[in-house]
Automatic annotation (TrEMBL):
This is DUF4193 domain-containing protein. Residues 1-48 are annotated as: Disordered. Residues 1-12 have a biased composition (Basic and acidic residues). It comes from the Bacteria. InterPro entries: DUF4193. It holds the Pfam family DUF4193. It comes from Microbacterium mcarthurae.
Length: 97
């Protein structure tokens, strides 16, 4: 007998009513959701907010012996990513492709 694979499949779950399916869906108000962002406990920052009075502490590491800066994309990569050497420096594999 030929089987039509494009025909919708009927299973035991198809016989359930919409009300029965709605009962299985969890109520959105039943659980408590913590909307507070753990990284930003003071609230959400709005776009265009003045952040000029905030100082950021960033540790800048000097170039390591096994790293190079791609002269095309200017990303710091591991030396295993060197594809070719151009006049001023190296080109990474992604930029050479």
């Amino acid at each position: 007998m030929a089987t039509d694979y494009d025909a919708p499949r009927k299973t035991e779950d198809d016989s359930e009513s919409i009300e029965a399916l709605k009962e299985r869906v969890p109520d959105k108000t039943s659980g408590s959701i913590d909307n507070e962002d753990a990284d930003n406990p003071s609230g959400f920052e709005l776009p265009g907010a003045d952040l000029s009075d905030i100082e950021l502490d960033v540790v800048v590491l000097p170039p390591q012996e096994d790293e190079f800066t791609c002269m095309n994309c200017f990303l710091v990569k591991h030396r295993s990513q060197i594809a070719e050497e151009s006049g001023p420096g190296f080109i990474c594999r992604e930029c050479a492709a």
